Amino acid sequence: MIPSLYGKFDIGFALPLGHSSIWLRNAAGVNWGDRDNPLVSAYFGGFGNNYVDNGEAKRYREIFTLPGFEIDALSGKSFVKSMAEWNLPPLRFEHWGSPGFYASWARPALFATALVTDLDHGDLREDAYNVGFQLDVQLQVMHRLPMMLSFGYASGFGGDGRGEDEFMISLKVL
Asked: What is the separation of C-alpha 32 from the centre of its chain, rounded to a whole number of angstroms?
């Protein structure tokens, strides 16, 4: 067993623009153990969504995700991660589809993240950043089966040049 300690603190503010908010999402963690053991590190990368999914649509908010980098591209025994997120007002649709299948709204979100790993080890320290967006479209099937179609894009920077452009599409079923 590898002892670990992780913490998360989020705070949000409503904006005068109706149904819009700014969120600051922060996380930090530390793992103890031998650095040569790959199980000691925390790993970061990717949106975290599957093509067809049943989990939360906005997984870019989770502690170990970092869109704009491959899954598990970044790692460290300790880390600090901060994200600024702007949830824009939803777009509501009145006549988009048929009574048995229609889209009711779409909600865009913009985000930017900074991650620092191995704070206590200057030669292993990595700084990584991203900027991106996600658009979630609420779909209704037969008036009772909600689904979420999500599109996302993020660009990663830093992380010893491992940043890239990442595109995401995911359909949350039920």
From this structure: 26
Backbone angles phi, psi at 59, to 5 degrees: -75, -15
CA atoms within 13 A on the CB side of 117: 23
Which phi and psi angles does 60 have, rounded to 5°? Answer: -60, -15
Whole-Å CA distances, 90 to 57, 125, 173: 15, 39, 20
The string of pLDDT tens digits covering residues 28-66 is 999 998 888 888 999 999 999 999 988 899 999 999 999
Return the percentage of the chain with pLDDT > 70, whole number. 99
Q: How buried is 169 (Cβ within 10 angstroms: 0-12 exposed, 13-18 middle, 19+ buried)?
A: exposed
User: What is the rounded CA–CA span in Å between residue 20 and residue 84?
Assistant: 14
